[in-house]
Amino acid sequence: MDERVKQAYESVQISEKAKTRIFHEIIASDKKEVKRRIFSKVAIFVMCVLACSSTIYAAHRLLRAGAIASMFGEEKLAKRFEAMSDEIVTAENDIYRAYFLGAVSGEKLCENEIDVENTKSYFVVALERKDGENLTYEDEIIVSPFVQGIAPWQFNIYNMEGSATRQVVDGVLYCLYACSDLEVFANTGVYIGVTDEDVFADAYVYDSESGIISLNEEYDGLNFLFELSTKASNEDVEEDTLSRQNDFMENGRQAINNLDEMMANSMLDEDSVMELQENEEGFLIYNYDDIVDLHISAKAVQKHGRDSFSFMDAETNTKIVKFLVVEYVEGKYVAKLYICE
Protein backbone atom coordinates (compact mmCIF):
# COMPACT_ATOMS: atom_id res chain seq x y z
CA MET A 1 0.00 0.00 0.00
CA ASP A 2 2.85 2.40 0.87
CA GLU A 3 4.41 1.88 -2.56
CA ARG A 4 1.08 2.53 -4.31
CA VAL A 5 0.59 5.68 -2.27
CA LYS A 6 4.07 6.85 -3.20
CA GLN A 7 3.47 6.20 -6.89
CA ALA A 8 0.12 8.00 -6.83
CA TYR A 9 1.59 10.94 -4.91
CA GLU A 10 4.42 11.29 -7.43
CA SER A 11 2.03 11.11 -10.39
CA VAL A 12 -0.22 13.97 -9.32
CA GLN A 13 0.06 16.80 -11.86
CA ILE A 14 1.12 19.65 -9.61
CA SER A 15 4.50 21.30 -9.08
CA GLU A 16 7.24 19.68 -7.03
CA LYS A 17 7.22 22.68 -4.68
CA ALA A 18 3.52 22.19 -4.06
CA LYS A 19 3.97 18.47 -3.39
CA THR A 20 6.76 19.17 -0.92
CA ARG A 21 4.76 21.88 0.83
CA ILE A 22 1.63 19.74 1.05
CA PHE A 23 3.64 16.82 2.42
CA HIS A 24 5.13 18.98 5.18
CA GLU A 25 1.77 20.54 6.02
CA ILE A 26 0.30 17.05 6.49
CA ILE A 27 3.15 16.22 8.83
CA ALA A 28 2.77 19.47 10.76
CA SER A 29 -0.96 18.96 11.20
CA ASP A 30 -0.44 16.08 13.63
CA LYS A 31 3.06 16.09 15.05
CA LYS A 32 2.19 13.76 17.93
CA GLU A 33 1.26 10.83 15.71
CA VAL A 34 3.33 11.44 12.60
CA LYS A 35 5.04 8.07 12.43
CA ARG A 36 1.86 6.05 12.88
CA ARG A 37 -0.50 8.05 10.69
CA ILE A 38 1.46 9.90 8.04
CA PHE A 39 1.00 7.42 5.19
CA SER A 40 -2.72 7.07 5.80
CA LYS A 41 -3.05 10.86 5.62
CA VAL A 42 -1.02 11.01 2.43
CA ALA A 43 -3.11 8.19 0.98
CA ILE A 44 -6.36 9.97 1.76
CA PHE A 45 -5.04 13.21 0.26
CA VAL A 46 -3.78 11.55 -2.92
CA MET A 47 -7.02 9.65 -3.43
CA CYS A 48 -8.95 12.90 -3.15
CA VAL A 49 -6.63 14.65 -5.59
CA LEU A 50 -6.90 11.82 -8.10
CA ALA A 51 -10.67 11.80 -7.77
CA CYS A 52 -11.18 15.52 -8.28
CA SER A 53 -7.79 17.10 -8.75
CA SER A 54 -8.50 20.79 -9.36
CA THR A 55 -11.11 21.26 -6.63
CA ILE A 56 -9.25 19.54 -3.81
CA TYR A 57 -5.92 21.04 -4.78
CA ALA A 58 -7.39 24.52 -4.73
CA ALA A 59 -8.71 23.94 -1.22
CA HIS A 60 -5.38 22.68 0.13
CA ARG A 61 -2.86 24.70 -1.83
CA LEU A 62 -2.89 27.89 0.26
CA LEU A 63 -0.17 28.22 2.86
CA ARG A 64 -1.23 29.31 6.34
CA ALA A 65 0.24 32.28 8.21
CA GLY A 66 2.43 30.06 10.39
CA ALA A 67 3.92 28.34 7.35
CA ILE A 68 4.66 31.74 5.78
CA ALA A 69 6.49 32.93 8.91
CA SER A 70 8.47 29.67 8.96
CA MET A 71 9.34 30.09 5.30
CA PHE A 72 10.94 33.43 6.20
CA GLY A 73 12.80 31.88 9.13
CA GLU A 74 10.63 33.45 11.84
CA GLU A 75 9.86 30.43 14.01
CA LYS A 76 8.80 32.39 17.09
CA LEU A 77 6.32 34.36 15.03
CA ALA A 78 5.20 31.15 13.31
CA LYS A 79 4.24 29.62 16.68
CA ARG A 80 2.09 32.65 17.47
CA PHE A 81 0.31 32.33 14.14
CA GLU A 82 -0.13 28.58 14.57
CA ALA A 83 -1.95 29.17 17.85
CA MET A 84 -4.62 31.08 15.96
CA SER A 85 -7.65 29.73 14.16
CA ASP A 86 -7.09 28.50 10.60
CA GLU A 87 -9.99 30.66 9.40
CA ILE A 88 -9.19 32.49 6.17
CA VAL A 89 -11.08 35.58 5.01
CA THR A 90 -11.42 35.79 1.23
CA ALA A 91 -12.28 38.65 -1.12
CA GLU A 92 -12.31 38.64 -4.90
CA ASN A 93 -13.10 40.60 -8.03
CA ASP A 94 -13.09 39.65 -11.70
CA ILE A 95 -9.32 39.29 -11.83
CA TYR A 96 -7.90 38.71 -8.34
CA ARG A 97 -8.59 36.71 -5.22
CA ALA A 98 -7.13 37.98 -1.93
CA TYR A 99 -6.81 36.14 1.39
CA PHE A 100 -6.32 37.58 4.85
CA LEU A 101 -4.50 34.85 6.78
CA GLY A 102 -4.27 36.41 10.22
CA ALA A 103 -2.67 39.01 12.49
CA VAL A 104 -0.83 38.89 15.82
CA SER A 105 0.87 41.43 18.08
CA GLY A 106 3.71 41.13 20.56
CA GLU A 107 7.25 42.05 21.52
CA LYS A 108 10.43 40.51 20.09
CA LEU A 109 8.57 38.13 17.79
CA CYS A 110 11.02 38.52 14.89
CA GLU A 111 14.71 37.69 14.90
CA ASN A 112 16.10 40.77 13.18
CA GLU A 113 13.99 43.55 14.66
CA ILE A 114 15.86 46.73 15.44
CA ASP A 115 13.26 48.19 17.83
CA VAL A 116 12.71 45.18 20.11
CA GLU A 117 11.32 47.06 23.10
CA ASN A 118 7.99 48.02 21.55
CA THR A 119 5.03 45.88 20.66
CA LYS A 120 4.56 45.39 16.93
CA SER A 121 1.80 43.88 14.82
CA TYR A 122 2.30 41.26 12.12
CA PHE A 123 -0.17 40.17 9.48
CA VAL A 124 -0.16 37.93 6.42
CA VAL A 125 -2.00 38.51 3.16
CA ALA A 126 -1.99 36.35 0.02
CA LEU A 127 -3.01 37.35 -3.50
CA GLU A 128 -3.52 35.34 -6.68
CA ARG A 129 -4.96 35.76 -10.14
CA LYS A 130 -8.18 33.88 -10.83
CA ASP A 131 -7.14 33.02 -14.38
CA GLY A 132 -4.23 30.95 -13.08
CA GLU A 133 -1.55 33.30 -14.36
CA ASN A 134 1.30 33.63 -11.90
CA LEU A 135 1.89 36.83 -9.96
CA THR A 136 5.45 38.13 -9.90
CA TYR A 137 7.46 40.47 -7.72
CA GLU A 138 7.04 43.16 -10.37
CA ASP A 139 3.27 43.35 -9.82
CA GLU A 140 2.26 46.61 -8.16
CA ILE A 141 0.72 45.46 -4.88
CA ILE A 142 0.35 47.72 -1.82
CA VAL A 143 -0.90 46.30 1.48
CA SER A 144 -1.66 48.69 4.34
CA PRO A 145 -3.50 48.98 7.65
CA PHE A 146 -6.05 51.77 7.99
CA VAL A 147 -7.68 53.12 11.14
CA GLN A 148 -11.36 54.00 11.36
CA GLY A 149 -11.75 57.72 11.92
CA ILE A 150 -8.69 58.71 9.87
CA ALA A 151 -8.58 59.04 6.08
CA PRO A 152 -6.45 56.28 4.47
CA TRP A 153 -4.27 58.82 2.69
CA GLN A 154 -3.50 60.51 6.01
CA PHE A 155 -2.60 57.44 8.09
CA ASN A 156 -1.34 54.19 6.58
CA ILE A 157 1.59 51.76 6.39
CA TYR A 158 3.97 54.60 5.52
CA ASN A 159 3.29 56.26 8.88
CA MET A 160 3.35 53.02 10.88
CA GLU A 161 7.00 51.99 10.58
CA GLY A 162 5.85 49.37 8.11
CA SER A 163 8.03 46.71 6.53
CA ALA A 164 7.25 43.75 4.29
CA THR A 165 8.68 40.41 3.24
CA ARG A 166 7.26 38.77 0.12
CA GLN A 167 7.48 35.41 -1.54
CA VAL A 168 5.80 33.93 -4.63
CA VAL A 169 4.90 30.25 -4.19
CA ASP A 170 3.16 28.46 -7.08
CA GLY A 171 2.03 31.79 -8.51
CA VAL A 172 0.52 33.03 -5.22
CA LEU A 173 2.07 36.17 -3.72
CA TYR A 174 2.44 35.91 0.07
CA CYS A 175 3.13 39.08 2.06
CA LEU A 176 4.25 39.16 5.70
CA TYR A 177 3.95 42.68 7.08
CA ALA A 178 5.18 44.25 10.31
CA CYS A 179 4.06 47.63 11.64
CA SER A 180 3.50 49.54 14.86
CA ASP A 181 1.05 48.00 17.31
CA LEU A 182 -2.46 47.91 15.85
CA GLU A 183 -4.02 46.76 19.11
CA VAL A 184 -3.89 50.33 20.42
CA PHE A 185 -6.81 50.96 18.05
CA ALA A 186 -8.91 48.09 19.43
CA ASN A 187 -11.60 50.53 20.53
CA THR A 188 -11.56 52.31 17.16
CA GLY A 189 -11.44 49.81 14.33
CA VAL A 190 -8.72 48.61 11.98
CA TYR A 191 -8.79 47.64 8.30
CA ILE A 192 -6.26 45.97 6.01
CA GLY A 193 -6.34 47.25 2.43
CA VAL A 194 -4.86 45.50 -0.61
CA THR A 195 -4.51 47.73 -3.66
CA ASP A 196 -2.28 49.02 -6.43
CA GLU A 197 -2.81 52.68 -5.45
CA ASP A 198 0.03 53.93 -3.27
CA VAL A 199 -1.64 57.02 -1.79
CA PHE A 200 -5.07 55.33 -1.42
CA ALA A 201 -7.11 58.39 -2.40
CA ASP A 202 -8.77 56.70 -5.37
CA ALA A 203 -9.09 53.11 -4.17
CA TYR A 204 -10.97 53.87 -0.94
CA VAL A 205 -13.75 56.14 0.26
CA TYR A 206 -13.63 57.88 3.63
CA ASP A 207 -16.78 59.10 5.36
CA SER A 208 -15.67 61.98 7.57
CA GLU A 209 -18.92 61.91 9.55
CA SER A 210 -18.79 58.26 10.64
CA GLY A 211 -15.09 57.64 10.15
CA ILE A 212 -15.89 54.51 8.15
CA ILE A 213 -13.56 53.46 5.33
CA SER A 214 -14.99 51.53 2.40
CA LEU A 215 -14.08 50.39 -1.10
CA ASN A 216 -14.46 52.78 -4.01
CA GLU A 217 -16.63 50.58 -6.22
CA GLU A 218 -15.83 52.77 -9.23
CA TYR A 219 -12.08 52.32 -8.90
CA ASP A 220 -10.72 50.65 -12.03
CA GLY A 221 -7.95 48.65 -10.42
CA LEU A 222 -7.08 46.37 -7.55
CA ASN A 223 -8.72 47.20 -4.22
CA PHE A 224 -9.75 44.91 -1.38
CA LEU A 225 -10.56 45.75 2.23
CA PHE A 226 -10.54 43.43 5.26
CA GLU A 227 -11.91 44.58 8.60
CA LEU A 228 -9.97 43.25 11.58
CA SER A 229 -11.96 41.96 14.53
CA THR A 230 -10.03 44.05 17.04
CA LYS A 231 -12.84 46.26 18.26
CA ALA A 232 -13.55 46.58 21.97
CA SER A 233 -15.88 48.68 24.07
CA ASN A 234 -14.46 51.81 25.63
CA GLU A 235 -14.89 50.20 29.06
CA ASP A 236 -12.43 47.48 28.03
CA VAL A 237 -9.73 49.90 26.99
CA GLU A 238 -7.23 50.68 29.75
CA GLU A 239 -5.84 54.15 30.32
CA ASP A 240 -2.42 52.89 29.28
CA THR A 241 -3.81 51.77 25.92
CA LEU A 242 -5.49 55.13 25.34
CA SER A 243 -2.24 56.90 26.16
CA ARG A 244 -0.33 54.68 23.71
CA GLN A 245 -2.99 55.36 21.09
CA ASN A 246 -2.53 59.12 21.45
CA ASP A 247 1.24 58.76 21.18
CA PHE A 248 0.90 56.51 18.16
CA MET A 249 -1.42 58.86 16.31
CA GLU A 250 1.38 61.44 15.95
CA ASN A 251 0.71 65.12 15.46
CA GLY A 252 -0.73 65.89 12.07
CA ARG A 253 -2.92 62.77 11.82
CA GLN A 254 -6.07 63.65 13.74
CA ALA A 255 -9.16 64.18 11.60
CA ILE A 256 -11.08 67.49 11.75
CA ASN A 257 -14.74 67.02 10.94
CA ASN A 258 -15.87 70.64 11.48
CA LEU A 259 -13.08 72.26 9.45
CA ASP A 260 -15.01 75.31 8.20
CA GLU A 261 -16.08 76.18 11.73
CA MET A 262 -12.55 75.66 13.02
CA MET A 263 -11.13 77.96 10.34
CA ALA A 264 -13.69 80.67 11.12
CA ASN A 265 -12.84 80.60 14.82
CA SER A 266 -9.04 80.41 14.52
CA MET A 267 -6.29 82.86 13.59
CA LEU A 268 -4.42 82.47 10.29
CA ASP A 269 -0.62 82.59 10.61
CA GLU A 270 0.17 84.79 7.61
CA ASP A 271 3.83 83.74 7.50
CA SER A 272 2.85 80.10 7.17
CA VAL A 273 1.04 80.51 3.86
CA MET A 274 3.00 78.94 1.00
CA GLU A 275 2.56 77.18 -2.31
CA LEU A 276 3.66 73.54 -2.32
CA GLN A 277 5.04 71.53 -5.22
CA GLU A 278 4.31 67.87 -5.86
CA ASN A 279 7.46 65.73 -5.78
CA GLU A 280 8.23 62.65 -7.88
CA GLU A 281 6.59 60.37 -5.32
CA GLY A 282 3.29 62.28 -5.41
CA PHE A 283 3.70 64.09 -2.09
CA LEU A 284 3.65 67.72 -0.99
CA ILE A 285 6.25 68.44 1.71
CA TYR A 286 5.46 71.15 4.27
CA ASN A 287 8.10 72.71 6.55
CA TYR A 288 7.36 75.64 8.83
CA ASP A 289 8.44 76.43 12.38
CA ASP A 290 8.27 73.12 14.32
CA ILE A 291 6.40 71.30 11.53
CA VAL A 292 9.10 69.37 9.71
CA ASP A 293 8.73 67.17 6.62
CA LEU A 294 4.98 66.75 6.82
CA HIS A 295 4.10 64.54 3.83
CA ILE A 296 0.74 65.26 2.19
CA SER A 297 -0.80 63.27 -0.66
CA ALA A 298 -1.15 65.61 -3.67
CA LYS A 299 -3.70 63.28 -5.23
CA ALA A 300 -5.87 63.34 -2.10
CA VAL A 301 -5.80 67.15 -1.94
CA GLN A 302 -6.63 67.44 -5.62
CA LYS A 303 -9.43 64.89 -5.43
CA HIS A 304 -11.13 66.35 -2.34
CA GLY A 305 -10.22 69.99 -2.88
CA ARG A 306 -8.40 70.24 0.44
CA ASP A 307 -6.93 68.26 3.31
CA SER A 308 -6.24 69.11 6.94
CA PHE A 309 -3.76 68.10 9.63
CA SER A 310 -4.17 68.93 13.30
CA PHE A 311 -1.52 69.37 15.98
CA MET A 312 -2.24 68.53 19.59
CA ASP A 313 -1.21 70.04 22.89
CA ALA A 314 2.13 68.44 23.81
CA GLU A 315 1.15 67.84 27.45
CA THR A 316 -2.41 66.52 27.17
CA ASN A 317 -2.33 65.19 23.58
CA THR A 318 -6.08 65.81 23.43
CA LYS A 319 -6.60 69.49 22.58
CA ILE A 320 -5.95 70.81 19.07
CA VAL A 321 -3.72 73.90 19.31
CA LYS A 322 -3.14 74.48 15.59
CA PHE A 323 -3.99 72.89 12.27
CA LEU A 324 -2.82 72.99 8.69
CA VAL A 325 -5.15 73.30 5.70
CA VAL A 326 -3.87 72.44 2.22
CA GLU A 327 -6.12 73.53 -0.65
CA TYR A 328 -6.05 72.86 -4.38
CA VAL A 329 -7.02 76.11 -6.09
CA GLU A 330 -6.63 76.88 -9.80
CA GLY A 331 -4.03 74.18 -10.26
CA LYS A 332 -1.96 75.19 -7.22
CA TYR A 333 -1.48 73.60 -3.81
CA VAL A 334 -1.63 76.23 -1.07
CA ALA A 335 -0.91 75.49 2.61
CA LYS A 336 -2.15 77.64 5.50
CA LEU A 337 -1.56 77.20 9.22
CA TYR A 338 -4.25 78.26 11.71
CA ILE A 339 -3.75 78.88 15.43
CA CYS A 340 -6.65 77.94 17.69
CA GLU A 341 -7.81 80.72 19.99
Give an overview in words:
This protein has a five-stranded antiparallel beta sheet, covered by helices on one side. The protein has a four-stranded antiparallel beta sheet with strand order 11-16-15-14. It has a three-stranded antiparallel beta sheet with strand order 4-7-10, with no helix packed on it. With 341 residues, the chain is of the alpha+beta class. It has three domains: 2-60, no CATH class; 65-248, Immunoglobulin-like (Sandwich), CATH 2.60.40; 259-340, no CATH class. α1 crosses α3 (34-51), α3 crosses α4 (53-60) and α5 packs antiparallel against α6 (75-82). β14 (306-312) and β15 form a beta hairpin. The termini are far apart. It has helices at residues 2-11, 16-28, 34-51, 53-60, 65-71, 75-82, 239-249, 259-264, 298-304, and strands at residues 89-92, 96-106, 120-129, 142-147, 163-169, 172-180, 190-195, 204-206, 213-215, 223-228, 266-276, 283-288, 291-297, 306-312, 320-329, 332-340. The protein is 26% helix and 34% strand.
